[in-house]
Fold:
Amino acid sequence: MQVMRYFDYAASTPLDPRVAEAMAAAAAKPGNPSSIHAFGRALREDVDRARASVARLLGVGPGAVTFTSGATEANALAVMGAWRAAARAHPGKKLTIVAGGLEHASVAGSLAALAADEGADVVLVGADKDGAASPADVAAAMTPETVLVSVMWANNVLGSIQPVREIGRLVAEERMRRGAGGLPVAFHSDAVQAVRTEAVLPSEAGVDLLTVSAHKMYGPKGVGALVRTSGSALRPLYAGGGQEDGLRSGTENAAGIAGFGRAAGILADEREADAAHAAALRASFLAELAERAPRMEVVAGAHSVPGIIFLRHPGVDGDLLALTLDSAGFAVSAGSACDSGKRKGSRVLAAVLDERRAAHGGIRVSFGRSTGASDISELAAALGAAAK
Structure:
């Protein structure tokens, strides 16, 4: 039987066995975290412990962490919740949102829905050849009616790191200009792809609302969090029992949250080692690729997270290349697993490449904690054979 090697960490990371143990322990407990009896209190302790662990990873207080069903819900809560809170407080006023043009589908979809259904004025900022938004462009797009700026920390297709701290300073300066009686303005950043290897500290970066996901940091699928550092007003997406400080009603996924907390604790202790490991693998892979497949091009790789590399070949279609590698035992992506359309990730590629180069697409190679040097070497060899 053929051995498959996994190179799609940007879509989902392998579950850490230590996380699985924490989940099993929580799942074995009956009850509801909102119940006042001993069983409920035990589960509430698991949730509170996990909340503190996620908060420690991100350098915030536990009260800043709101658990959700994943990053898609957290992004929607941030984008729609912030806009709706401002619109409710300022009825009849034309409000605007400024966002990066390469945002994840969950942010882009929320923005499109607000524009189509609720009259939000959405301004998208383009990206340079390295896949990064320009702070100057963000500043130029902001108006006195802007209530939200949303720019991801690292792109999910290219891995390109965005100038989050510079944008955070711009938003803070705009807030000061408006004064206490002015319109609110918040800065949201989707940090799902950055947190595995980067020091994601939202308070230091001027980020008011931050999105993270458990299954992108060796935790379980189906659980994420929105971190609120500055008390930005949010309207919940739906009504219910008032769990998660009224922002996300519904019985908490205690087992998933316990796994999230364990994953966050492990990452807090091991992230520097993870980043060094990914950087070493990246350097080795690119060196071997230059020898074995010299026509492969790294797209927007000048300043990116070490564990994500987007590659294109001038003569080989990206989808075909991904399928060829799959047949050879290597799981890579032809784009983002969360995008849909004729070619996954084509929207992002079109923003950083000319039309001719973007047309062929490419492949996203992503790796991490469990990837070995031999895996990287064998992938480079397979690419050399597939992309002659």
